[in-house]
Design brief:
- There is one protein chain.
- Strands 1, 2, 3, 4 and 5 form a five-stranded antiparallel sheet that branches.
- The protein is about 45% helix and about 25% strand.
- The protein contains two helices and five strands; from the N terminus they run H-E-E-E-H-E-E.
- It has two domains: about 1-35; about 35-100, no CATH class.
- By secondary structure, it is of the alpha+beta class.
- The radius of gyration is 23 Å and the shape is elongated.
């Protein structure tokens, strides 16, 4: 009988601990998912200088599409280097995600 109370107490304790962990995690996840992020492709020439090619699409809303376009551009223009940059809504500077 005493062992059943200990198991029940331990189960309640674990459930409360999980619940207390999930509340902040879910609120942070919702806050992060609401932030607007844009992704851009930065083009570098053979000297490492940033250049702009007017006929290429460089601004995207999702990272998967930007990464796909960047890989395709690398196949089409092998002498250029491409960087995937993230611009967050409240960030002062862009963040380099991938470099190809």
């Amino acid at each position: 009988m005493d062992n059943d109370k200990a198991i029940r107490f331990f189960g309640i304790f674990v459930a409360i601990a999980i619940f207390l962990f999930l509340i902040p995690w879910i609120t942070m996840w919702v806050k992060k998912s609401r932030e607007r992020k844009t992704y851009s492709i930065v083009i570098y020439d053979v000297n490492g200088q940033i250049i702009y090619l007017d006929y290429l699409r460089v601004n995207f809303r999702t990272i998967d599409v930007a990464w796909s376009f960047m890989k395709e551009y690398k196949k089409m223009y092998p002498f250029y280097d491409f960087g995937l940059v993230s611009f967050e809504e409240y960030s002062e500077s862009p963040t380099m995600i991938k470099y190809l």
